[in-house]
Design a protein that fits this description.
With 101 residues, the chain is mostly helical. It has one domain. Helices cover 68% and strands 0% of the residues. It contains 3 helices and no strands.
Length: 101
C-alpha cells in the first residue's frame, strides 16, 4: 500500500496545482458567476476530451486532471457561498408542468 499512497498523493498534488493555475487564470469573480450547470458543463468538456478516440496518454491525463480540478473548484464554490442562481431558479413553477421525480 505505501506505493499506492505515494501515487495518490502525487495525483492530488498535481490536481492542486491545476486548481491554482486555473484560479490565477480565471479568478474568483469568474468562479462566483458560475451556476452548477456551468460547472457540470466544464467538467464534462474535459472528461469528453479525455475519452476522445486517439487521445494520447498525456492528453488523457491532462484532461482528467483538469476535470478533477474543476470538480474541486466547484465544491469550493459551493462551500463558499453556493453557486450563482440559474436563470429559472426562484421562479414559480407553472401548474401545467408535471412534477419530475
Amino acid at each position: 500500500m505505501p506505493g499506492l499512497v505515494v501515487r495518490i498523493q502525487k495525483i492530488l498534488d498535481d490536481i492542486g496545482l491545476e486548481v491554482i493555475r486555473a484560479k490565477e487564470q480565471w479568478g474568483e469573480d469568474f468562479d462566483r458567476k458560475n451556476t452548477q450547470n456551468d460547472w457540470n458543463t466544464y467538467v464534462n468538456i474535459y472528461l469528453s476530451k479525455a475519452a476522445a478516440m486517439g487521445a494520447s496518454f498525456e492528453e488523457v491525463e491532462t484532461n482528467l486532471r483538469k476535470a478533477a480540478g474543476l470538480l474541486i473548484s466547484a465544491i469550493d464554490a459551493h462551500q463558499s457561498g453556493g453557486f450563482a442562481p440559474r436563470h429559472y431558479e426562484g421562479q414559480t413553477r407553472p401548474a401545467s408542468l408535471p412534477e419530475v421525480k
